[in-house]
Automatic annotation (TrEMBL):
<dbReference type="InterPro" id="IPR009784">
    <property type="entry name" value="DUF1349"/>
</dbReference>
<dbReference type="InterPro" id="IPR013320">
    <property type="entry name" value="ConA-like_dom_sf"/>
</dbReference>
<protein>
    <recommendedName>
        <fullName>DUF1349 domain-containing protein</fullName>
    </recommendedName>
</protein>
<dbReference type="Pfam" id="PF07081">
    <property type="entry name" value="DUF1349"/>
</dbReference>
Length: 194
């Protein structure tokens, strides 16, 4: 999987964070309390103020985001976003839910869904999330440190529509979440699902 690093200055924020700074090659992002991304399902609300730093993504194409999983408050989250508009997007990464770190994805095609799996052993380590878009699907993979990627989700996504993609974070339940993003890269889509 050949990728090319994206500069942090190469994207535009969907919702400005409380603070943003660069420390060496890393991007530090302070999330606003109450920030989130969700549409309707089960909870009845719409949130569209997660902090996503997005740039156009080739079709087909892939995006990777690496960050430190050093958060532990309910619904703290970080990863990547693919977005067409307010009703058509995907977020994937790690999130604290029920006092455990979970890897998962939310796919929103008018309404959001959510899938997670526990990865408590990833806490405090560097996580990389990869989303590969081809045709009418996005394949999400994730890994910790230099371990092999594991499949997280194969999700439907509209074919032929422009998409922006990049890193994101949100803090639905608290103030003071500072995320350290290590890398943002793009490249060709995965050659195969397996």
């Amino acid at each position: 999987m050949t990728t090319e690093s994206m500069p942090w200055s190469g994207g535009t924020w969907t919702a400005p964070p409380v603070a943003v700074s660069e420390e060496g090659p890393d991007l530090l992002v302070t999330a606003a309390e109450g920030s989130d991304a969700w549409r309707h399902t089960a909870y009845g609300f719409v949130h569209d103020d997660a902090h996503a730093l997005l740039a156009p993504l080739a079709d087909p194409g892939a995006v990777e985001v690496s960050f430190d999983a050093t958060f532990d408050q309910q619904f703290d989250q970080a990863g990547l976003v693919l977005r067409t508009d307010a009703e058509t997007w995907l977020k994937a990464g790690v999130e604290v839910s029920d006092r455990a770190l979970q890897v998962g994805a939310v796919v929103t095609l008018g309404r959001s869904d959510w899938s997670v799996a526990p990865v408590q052993e990833w806490a405090g380590r560097q996580v990389t999330v990869r989303a590969s878009r081809t045709g009418d699907a996005v394949t999400v993979r994730a890994r910790v440190d230099d371990e092999p990627f594991r499949l997280v989700r194969v999700a439907p996504f509209p074919a032929g529509v422009p998409v922006t993609a990049g890193p994101y974070c949100a803090a639905p339940t608290r103030a003071g979440l500072v995320m350290r993003f290590r890398r943002w890269a793009t490249g060709p889509a995965d050659a195969a699902l397996h």
